[in-house]
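tmp note - Multidrug and toxin extrusion protein
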Amino acid sequence: VTEASVRRSTEEMMDGSRARAEAPSEEPSAKLFCCGCVRRYIPLVYREEIYHILRMAGPLLVCRFLNFLLFFVVTMFCGRLGNTELAGYGMASATIHVTATATGYGLTLACDTLVSQTFGSKNLLHVGVILQRGVLILLLFCLPCWALLINTQPLLLLVGQDPEVCFLMFAWFSSNVQAMFLYQLQRSYLQNQGVIMPQMYASVVVNIVNVLANYVLLFWLDLGVHGSAAANSFAPIFSCIALFTYIRIKKLHVKTWGGWSSESLQDWGAYMKLAIPSTLMACFDWWIYEIGGFLAGMLGEVDLAAQHVVIMLAYIVYMIPLGLQGAACVRVGNALGAGNTAGAIHTSKVSLILAAILAILLGVVIASTKTVICVGMGILLGTGQQKIAAIANLLGYYLIGLPLSIILTYPAKLQIAGFWLGLLVAVFLLAIYFVVIIFRLNWKKMTEEVHLIVSSRDQTEERSPPVAQERQEVGQEEEKSSAASMLSTSQLMVRRGLTTLAAVLILAVGTVVHLTVPLPEVAFITNNTMDWENFTSPAPLTTQTLSF
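out:
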């Protein structure tokens, strides 16, 4: 008996050692960390986190690059039409991005926070409710956007922009704003559930269709500006339809979509408390570079061209940390929603370490520090602390960076280099601030606060037992107060009706202004056949006034 027990214990020890030897191959991170010395020095929890972040960041990077190619392709085809047409598209693109795209993107960032945290809490059907709420709010927001866009032409003329460029710019304005918003919401809906590949597949298909549409409309049908505008308008619509079709065919919505619900009309205030800081955070970060283009335009064509080249290069480089930002937001939000405070901390540490490594690899000072800021904003986005990032961007960019850039550009006569030097100081200070503030966050308190956001009013929803028990212990008083804050049907009809009426009135006012207020009387040259360098036989100049 003794020999048998000894033999049995020996076999168990051998099986255990064999299992431990084979364990690394069973770990997901073993695909990335196949070297034994690396596994020895990097703890398992960090190896797993690095693997999951990079696994998400890679496809997200590809998606960002493919979205950039859409605008790049349109720019190339517009360049074949002429310099004026290219300038018109550039002005239209910049105007739409600064107004509608930037603000709409900021509003969808609230879904990044809410969906990631709610999905982490395993309250899956409430994810669909959040998506419905975002759809309703973003569709209403389209109405003020249209009211603004249809009146941008006279505004640009008043500030001295080229009349002919402004006239052509209006051709690229279309009613595809809602398609852009819906596509962003679909991406947020999938991305924050950890589903990344569908948007990459859709982006590949859309890029192929975009090239074909531009080629057919501009070269085969020879539609010129209107053909380019039609192709540019079709791209976001097809993106939205392609991603929606993929979701339906693959049934990616089944677990999180319970059908349209009146609950989507509730809690708009909670959504906007996250959406407004998210919008400010994104716009403050976005607009500073557009201001740089305006300052460069005042210096001359050479500086403006240099600024444009630098912006394009910076945008391409910036897409790399954008992938890390999205992955960090998803992982942090999922961890907090699941009540896993330690997991959220690990994700934050690993994300910042990867950002630092990426900064070193990039080798460009401003791009390096910008990487840390981008990942830091993703972490704060996952925690629901967008307000911190919004205030930091406002103070750093506009109270420190912009005044310093103006001083270095004009009084110091450093030209466009002065703008980037001033911006470098702001970005460096912001990078330090984001790192410090993230490590000083009270993560346990935030985990409890997230419970207030993701707690469901439907107690029949399935939850993981540990999380459900922990949240039940947090307190039933919070659920009672949440139920008390629910609006009645009559209150919903009044409040949402007034919101809809306000949006419609804004569009109506914008339409009336567009139809009744004449354009500023700006004369411009209509004889484009004259060679301005040949003064021997000048042709008479005619002028006309821009009109609708």
